[in-house]
Amino acid sequence: MGSIGMTVLGVDPGLTRCGVGVVTGSVGRPLTLVDVAVVRTPPNLDIARRLHQLEQALEARITEHQPDVVAVERVFAQHNVRTVMGTAQASAIAMVVAARHGIPVHLHTPSEVKAAVTGSGRADKAQVAQMVTRLLRLSETPKPADATDALALAICHVWRGGAAQRLASAVAVAGGRS
């Protein structure tokens, strides 16, 4: 972590639309939007080709921004098996690309992200979008929701990961004194 804090690439995994947001910051300091995009793959394309397109897009973002951490939304159970499979596959691609670059990956549940950004794990998408817009001091909310969700993941990790990192450092220092 440099003077601007950590750079986190957040990934809201999806096969048709995969949100990717890059944020820099640290606990107690203003956050900065670096980049946000939604990677789209055509539903009529073969699944292997869609995953390859997603891999190439994530590779380009990681190469360009060189994040300290990649934060990915933890896949949770849904009733639609096709949707959860695509989400899980997109999530795995993000993790593999990060691992290829030696970048740590952290998974956050939707409720963890909502709680970190809004203060409530039960916040709706509109509340999350409003807080992301406010926290990043943007004039308008990024669209579509996948973009906002990726930024929320990155913000969540800056705050939760930064606090956890400082706690671990304090424990290591205290352990060296005993």
Describe it for me?
The protein has 178 residues and is α/β, with parallel strands linked by helices. The chain has one domain (6-172): Nucleotidyltransferase, domain 5, CATH 3.30.420.10. It has five helices and five strands. The chain has helices at residues 47-65, 81-100, 110-118, 125-135, 145-177; strands spanning 6-12, 17-25, 32-40, 69-73, 105-108. A five-stranded mixed β-sheet has the order 3-2-1-4-5, sandwiched between helices. Strand 2 and strand 3 (32-40) form a beta hairpin. Helix 3 (110-118) crosses helix 5 (145-177) and helix 4 packs across helix 5 (145-177). The protein is globular, with a radius of gyration of 16 Å. The two termini are 27 Å apart. The relative contact order is 0.20.
Write a brief structural summary.
By secondary structure, the chain is an alpha/beta fold. It has a single domain, classed as 2-Layer Sandwich (Nucleotidyltransferase, domain 5). The chain contains five helices and five strands; from the N terminus they run βββαβαβααα.
Q: What's the layout of helices and strands?
A:
Elements: E1 6-12, E2 17-25, E3 32-40, H1 47-65, E4 69-73, H2 81-100, E5 105-108, H3 110-118, H4 125-135, H5 145-177
Parallel strand pairs: 1-4, 4-5
Antiparallel strand pairs: 1-2, 2-3
Helix pairs in contact: 1-2, 3-5, 4-5
